[in-house]
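Why do we care about 3D structure at all? Because function follows from shape, and shape follows, mostly, from sequence. That is the central idea of this module. The next example makes it concrete: a single protein chain, its amino acid sequence, and then its structure expressed as tokens.
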Amino acid sequence: MQATIDRARANVWAAGIVAGVIAGALIDTFLVIANHATYIQIWQFVASAIVGDAAFASPSYAILGFVMHFAISIVWASIYAWAAFGPMPVLARAPVISGLLYGVVVMLGMTVLLMIKHVGPPGVPDPGTLLKSLVAHTVFFGLPVGLYVSRAARS
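And the structure:
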């Protein structure tokens, strides 16, 4: 019995880590293209959530942003994997719609957690930023997480 529980936990963590890395790479690539930026600039932006504008003073802060972004991606993907392998197996059975909807949840969560830090008090972001964020989090994060976790759940 304990071996089964341990294996299930390992499967959840493995699926979360792999899905998080895949989705993290995809979302970063989309953001680079959509924002006409470099990976270094994207990761500096992420690091600036902790260190503020100092992150833009040196490319070395990109390392912090890189670690932060992939850690955050892995955590969000692991939450999805835990739910799909446990109390909400429908997430694994309907990965496209579930993944896209989860992307919206992640976008809202990240907007609350990070965008306020950069933008200031809550308000309506400009439509272009909102659209890029929606596409990034649904198509390039939620969907790959949903598809990978679904495949892992069938293995």
